[in-house]
Amino acid sequence: MATHSQKDAYLYKKVITIGTVCELTGLSERQIRYYEKRKLIFPERTERGNRKYSFADVEALMDIANKMEDGMQTSELRKEMQRKEEKRYDTKLRERMIRGQLNAYFNKRD
């Protein structure tokens, strides 16, 4: 049985061209490049320098565009993204610590 991350791996695979992203999101290439320049989105580059995006990037771009439309500034969006990333990191760290404590407890009993 596939784990959650294996099952959703396609979401993060960078295979979509900027033209397709424009079609999916309704954003212009200029807008997408601006969000990249402002460090809100991080496409991969092919050997020829073409940008490649994932489905997760497409969702993020749509979220960014909606928040910008609502009046949010790119600096606010970047701070929000950093807070979310820190929270994810803290959660993963806490999970590893708990697993370590459980392993130590059960290994000590053997």
Detailed description of the structure:
Pfam families: MerR_1. Keywords: DNA-binding, Repressor, Transcription, Transcription regulation. By secondary structure, the protein is mainly alpha-helical. It folds into 2 domains: 72 residues, Multidrug-efflux Transporter Regulator, Chain: A, Domain 2 (Orthogonal Bundle); 38 residues. Helix content is 69%, strand content 6%. It is built from 6 helices and 3 strands, in the order H-H-E-H-H-E-E-H-H.
Descriptors:
110 residues, mainly alpha, Multidrug-efflux Transporter Regulator, Chain: A, Domain 2, 3-stranded antiparallel beta sheet, 6% strand, MerR_fam, MerR-type_HTH_dom
Brief summary of the model shown:
The protein is mostly helical and 110 residues long. The protein has 2 domains: 1-72, Orthogonal Bundle (Multidrug-efflux Transporter Regulator, Chain: A, Domain 2); 73-110.
CATH architecture of the largest domain: Orthogonal Bundle
Mean pLDDT: 89
How much helicity do the residues have?
A: 55-70%
Secondary-structure class: mainly alpha
CATH class of the largest domain: Mainly Alpha
| Mass-distribution shape | elongated
* SSE string: HHEHHEEHH
Rg for CA atoms: 19 Å
Strand content: 5-15%
Q: How far from one another are the termini?
A: 30 Å
Compute the number of structural domains: 2
Number of strands: 3
Low-confidence stretches: none
The number of helical segments is 6
Major sheet: 3 strands, antiparallel
Strand order of the largest sheet: 1-3-2
| CATH topology label of the largest domain | Multidrug-efflux Transporter Regulator, Chain: A, Domain 2
